[in-house]
Structure formats: structure tokens, C-alpha cells
Design a protein that fits this description.
- The strands form seven sheets. The chain has a four-stranded antiparallel β-sheet with strand order 3-2-1-28, with no helix packed on it.
- It is mainly beta.
- Strand 9 and strand 10 form a beta hairpin.
- The chain is built from three helices and 28 strands.
- The protein starts with 6 loop residues before the first helix and ends in a 9-residue tail after the last strand.
């Protein structure tokens, strides 16, 4: 199972987890790869909802504007489940020095997302007895994270706008999931999809220029890809596949194209289209499942995850080949090539390394390898289960 899980299944997973019963799927790494199904990695259900709000720690405007050593993109954030205690960890991949950003007695935290300047980390936590969005300085300087959303329904999948002013997420507040945008400094929020009753919208992704938001909606009775302007207007449907579902979408770094996964008749393949929905091309056509397309920082290469060799592996495709030759899938390189499961790849900002999750040492740990698949190293070697590695971005102009 490589695909994202529908939000209504997510709620069921949360309830299942309260008994300690693992969620569905062949292994926890693949469960984590299904986006919000990774909530199940917390092994527990949310406690009784409450709307109690605590005092905020300093807002984004109070963060020092001066560059820091951590802003160069040489850090990896992820979440660790250690016997039910789930925290956000920041790791230096060279020294293996770790910093726990959410080490407090109440709540669990997962899905870290770096701000564009690398100074803040947004994440999801139930420390207020409900799944809300928080953020905290990535250097660990805050005593407590700042609560960005307060609601009695789950708020999920935080994503920063490219200018760092907003965080989008989707929330179950009116009997359905809608996409919201919240101002990081003022905490004022807007429902961007309020005009679509009896449907759910989720997994919002900002375009690189910050002008558009890609998302999934079932407003036409099937999960399809849509795009809207940053303020929720000018909605356009990009896909129309009544017998299939789309998920795992990813903008190219220049915003001109979108890779995504089509699940049709129980088989998942990767497709590519222009950002306006034209020129749709099928990239993979294997009888196995392919998913999680992940662009290199320069857009010249694509990672994807497949079980075509009998277990979950990370593959690399050269986009020059894809653009020049039909059926370039045969040129895909298996970078991991290991009997254990490898998934959730993430490129370093310079494109030289790839972080990923692997079970090759007996549990889900964070590994890093060179971009050609060589020299894989277990960075954590912990007794917990680890998921969702993301690299700290480099500020504009910093390529040292």
C-alpha cells in the first residue's frame, strides 16, 4: 500500500489505534507512506476534545532574522514513536546529534514541515487533547511550541506558503474536510473551500510561486486533482477519471508540471501533466504499485517508490529520458536494492543526498544515502519507529 489514505479512513485508524492494534497494510513503513495514515504510527486515539487555549510562545515576527548555522539545509526533521511517546526530532546527518523539539509530558507530535527559511517547524500534535497545528523554532529555542489552530476536530497536513506567511491544512470542522489557510503571525484563518458542501477537500500543496494550491476533492463523487488560487478562487479541475483515484501529487520545482499517482483497478502508476492539466503522460505502467513521486531540487530527476521487486524500494528516473523516450520506465534505477523495505525518500537541498526510512535494521529508522544510492547509513539506530524525514531548506542565495 503506497497511496494516501482517504480522511474518513484516517479517523477509523485513529480509533483503531486506541487498542494498540496496528493499522492495515503489510508493514508500518508503507502505512507511514500513506500520508495521514501515519497518524496510526502514534498507536493511540485522540483524547476527549477540548477548546482550551494556552498562552502562545513568540510568534514568527519575534524570530531573529539573522542567518544561523542550522539554516544551511544540513538538518533533517522527522518524528519518532518510542513506546507511544511521539516527538519531533531534528538531526544533524553528519554528526548524528539530535534535538527533541517536543519533549513535554502531554501530547504526541508528527509530520514536521519546515518554513521556507528553515527557521520554524510546523507539525501536528494532540497536546491540547485534539489534533492541532503547532510551530516552533527549529533550533529548539522555544520553551513550548506555538498553537496555530484551535478546534475540536482534527487539523492535519500543515504546508507552508513559499513566502512563509501562511500555513495551509485541512480540517474536519463541519461534517466534512475543508482546506484552510492560517496567517502565521496573526493566527487569522480562512476556509478556502467553504463553498463545496457534501464533499471533502484535502492534501493542499502550494505551487512554488505561491500563487496556486493543488488539492484533492471528491466533489464530483471521485477523488480528483484540482487547483485553486491562493485565496481559494479560480478553481479548476485537472483530472477526470471516474474509474480511478488520484493522489500523491507533487509540483516540479519550477511549477510547470505535476507528477501524481493514479489508482485504477487496484494498480497504482505515476503520471505527469502540465500544471494546467494538459499533456497528460503515463510514466510507469508496471503491474506492481508505484507511488510517492519526489522531484530532485533541480527537477531533472524523480524518485519513486515501488514494490516491483517484491518489496518496497526506492527508484530513480532521469527526466531527460522520460521527456525523450516513451517507455523510459525500463531505465529506472533501484537505488536501495535491499530485502528490507525502503520508502519515504527526501532529497537534500543540494540534491547530493537522499534521506529515507528503512526497516533493514529491524525497525523503521532514518537512513541517508548518496544520490546514486551508494553509502547508505543508519542515522538514528534508535529503539523507536521513525517516519517522515524532511530536510531543512536553504535560504535563497545560500548554496554553501
Amino acid at each position: 500500500m503506497l497511496k494516501q489514505t482517504a480522511p474518513f479512513v484516517i479517523l477509523a485508524l485513529l480509533l483503531m489505534a486506541c487498542s494498540g492494534t496496528p493499522g492495515p497494510g503489510p508493514n508500518p513503513t508503507e502505512q507511514a507512506a500513506t500520508a495521514e495514515a501515519a497518524i496510526d504510527a502514534t498507536r493511540q486515539a485522540p483524547r476527549t476534545p477540548t477548546a482550551t487555549k494556552t498562552a502562545n510562545s513568540p510568534t514568527v515576527s519575534a524570530v531573529t532574522p539573522d542567518p544561523t548555522p542550522e539554516s544551511r539545509g544540513d538538518q533533517i526533521a522527522f518524528w519518532r514513536d518510542l513506546d507511544g511517546e511521539v516527538d519531533i526530532i531534528v538531526l544533524d546527518p553528519d554528526t548524528r546529534e539530535e534535538r527533541n523539539l517536543t519533549l513535554y509530558p502531554r501530547g504526541r507530535a508528527f509530520r514536521p514541515a519546515y518554513s521556507p527559511d528553515g527557521r520554524l517547524l510546523a507539525f501536528v500534535s494532540d497536546s491540547q487533547e485534539n489534533w492541532d497545528i503547532y510551530y516552533t523554532p527549529a533550533d529548539g529555542s522555544a520553551f513550548l511550541p506555538t498553537n496555530l489552530t484551535i478546534w475540536m476536530g482534527p487539523d492535519l497536513f500543515p504546508q507552508w506558503s513559499p513566502d512563509g506567511r501562511f500555513v495551509t491544512y485541512y480540517s474536519f470542522q463541519s461534517g466534512q474536510f475543508d482546506i484552510y489557510r492560517v496567517n502565521v503571525e496573526t493566527h487569522v484563518k480562512h476556509n478556502l473551500t467553504a463553498g463545496t458542501p457534501d464533499s471533502s477537500e484535502y492534501f493542499p500543496l502550494w505551487s512554488p510561486d505561491g500563487q496556486r494550491i493543488l488539492f484533492i476533492s471528491d466533489r464530483d463523487k471521485n477523488d480528483e486533482l484540482y487547483v485553486m488560487s491562493w485565496d481559494g478562487w479560480d478553481v479548476k479541475r485537472l483530472t477526470e477519471t471516474p474509474d480511478a483515484k488520484e493522489h500523491d501529487a507533487a509540483w516540479t520545482p519550477d511549477g510547470t508540471r505535476i507528477a501524481y499517482v493514479v489508482d485504477e483497478a487496484g494498480n497504482q502508476d505515476i503520471y505527469l501533466m502540465r500544471s494546467d492539466g494538459t499533456d497528460i503522460r503515463r510514466i510507469t505502467s508496471h503491474e506492481a504499485d508505484d507511488g510517492i513521486p519526489t522531484w530532485s531540487p533541480d527537477g531533472s530527476r524523480m524518485l519513486f517508490v515501488s514494490n516491483r521487486d517484491g518489496n518496497t524500494e526506492i527508484y530513480l528516473l532521469d527526466m531527460a529520458c522520460v521527456d525523450a523516450v516513451d517507455g523510459c520506465e525500463s531505465q529506472a534505477v533501484n537505488l536501495t536494492n535491499h530485502p528490507a523495505d525502503d520508502s519515504l525518500p527526501a532529497w537534500s537541498p543540494d540534491g547530493g543526498r537522499i534521506a529515507f526510512v528503512s526497516t533493514r535494521d529491524g525497525r523503521e529508522n532514518i537512513f541517508v544515502m548518496l544520490a546514486d544510492g551508494s553509502n547508505p547509513i543508519n542515522l538514528t539506530e534508535s529503539l523507536g519507529e521513525e517516519f517522515g524525514p524532511v530536510w531543512m531548506p536553504r535560504p535563497a542565495g545560500d548554496r554553501s
